[in-house]
Amino acid sequence: MSRPKTPVDWQAQIYQKHSRWIAGHQPHMAVGDGWADVLARLFDRIADALAGEPVPTQVAIIDIKEKYAELRFDIIAPVGPDTQAAIDHAILLAEMRSECTCDECGREGRLRSTLGSSGWLAVKCDLHRSGYPRLVAKGPPRRRVRDRRGDYDVVYERESDAVKLTPVDHGDSR
């Protein structure tokens, strides 16, 4: 996706491209321009997931924002379990990509903080780190998730735009 000049342009392009499956209003995407590609990929993946539904389905997007330097995407989707799992995976990928994408320009970034006890968090590349001198996270984004099959450690790989899932061994419960 080529980068439009204003946030309204790239947001409008995403909504226009995916208007067939979006029900109701289209909330403002309260994120930096650097995450335009993160959101474009997310919407494309949701569209792909919905294509597998037996009946054309519309979903309601509740909120799209940045909070604690990470994408938050809330959606209501009346879909089957396989489609829901695909949508959940798409959202996980977008959230984790946002954790390593500069919110200003879209380049690879790192989680940084302003100084002080009430420091603001943001993902910034080296070029845009001004005002965010403290490096908070090192290495790729990671987290632990739980689904119906168990607990997993998840590591995001930016180059392949994919996650690596490792089952968590909780030890022998005998």
Quickly list its features.
174 residues; alpha+beta; 3-stranded mixed beta sheet; 3 helices; 28% strand
Q: What does this protein look like?
A:
The chain is α+β, with helices and mostly antiparallel strands and 174 residues long. The chain has one domain (7-167). The chain is 25% helix and 28% strand. The strands form three sheets. A three-stranded mixed β-sheet has the order 1-2-3. Strands 5-4-6 form a three-stranded antiparallel β-sheet, with no helix packed on it. A three-stranded antiparallel β-sheet has the order 7-8-9. Helix 1 packs parallel to helix 2 and helix 2 (36-50) packs antiparallel against helix 3. The longest helix is centred in the middle third of the chain and has 18 residues, at 81-98. It is globular and about 50 Å long. The model has no long low-confidence stretch (mean pLDDT 90).
Short description:
The protein has 174 residues and is an alpha+beta fold.
Distance between the termini: 53 Å
Strand order of the largest sheet: 1-2-3
- Indicate the low-confidence ranges by residue numbers: none
Instruction: Give the overall average pLDDT.
Output: 90
Number of domains: 1
Count of separate DSSP helical elements? 3
* Cα radius of gyration in angstroms: 17 Å
Mind describing the biggest β-sheet? 3 strands, mixed
The percentage of residues in β strands lies in 25-35%
Helix coverage percent: 25-40%
Reading the helices and strands in chain order gives HEHEEHEEEEEE
- The structure class reads alpha+beta
Shape: globular
Number of strands: 9
